[in-house]
Amino acid sequence: METILLVEDNFSNFSLLEDIFLFDDIPARLVTVETGEEALNRAIEIQPILVLMDLRLPGIDGLETTEILKRNPLTRDIPVWAITAYAMNGDEERARAAGCCEYITKPVRALDLANRLRTFLDQPEREKAPT
Ligand code: MN
What we know:
This protein is of the alpha/beta class. It has helices spanning 11-23, 36-46, 62-71, 91-98, 110-122; strands at residues 3-7, 29-33, 50-54, 80-84, 102-105. It has a five-stranded parallel β-sheet with strand order 2-1-3-4-5, with helices on both faces. The model has no long low-confidence stretch (mean pLDDT 91).
């Protein structure tokens, strides 16, 4: 089964995401890490098909973590979705400039995210993405 890597330092947020995977029939395994540093190591090791990236993290933040993932040939093709409580003007642009391809605002609506994940996992063109 394919793996999705969640980078989230807040317990109630990663519990919600873990529940989505448990109860909403998402055909992927979720691995959670709580810091950007861990995310960089785990992404290389497990080669997730998608990274869900909280932007506000202790240590290196989600934007910088995304930039590092996008500079590394071993991880640069993995799509990164920003998940953030930031709702300031320009934040989505900054997330996209760092390399995030989707921008999801908190509070995360479980059904919406489950639907987006299922749509992503169903895309036939995902199979042909360069590795
Ligand atoms: Mn956070």
